[in-house]
Input
Amino acid sequence: MKNSNRKGFTLIELLVVVLILGILTAIALPSYLSSVQTSRQGAANTNARALATAVQSKAIGANAYDTTLADYATDMGGAMPSNPCTGTTTGYTITATATTATVAATTGSNCGTWTPTTFSLTL
Output
């Protein structure tokens, strides 16, 4: 009877494990990236909604809409939130007339193809 002290894994066993890990990664990675994009889009829309609230609040006091993004930093807790789709704090658009305004996040390369929510405001 031959006594074999075999320790470790064979090359075939290691290749099978690497193959299984590769298959799991190929399945999971696209789903993960899609979830990250959806999350960034939601965060951009949430930040735009918070900005719309600040715009409306300031407009009620001044009886006019201000379209300068930097003017709302104090109302937003001291700093403008970063738009996760553009990676900048200037990734939002405020468009105003005498009595109406709209606020929306700007699309960017970090979020894929999507249409941001436009928040409409009226004095």
About this structure: The radius of gyration is 25 Å. The longest helix spans residues 11-62. Helices lie at 11-62. The longest strand covers residues 100-105.
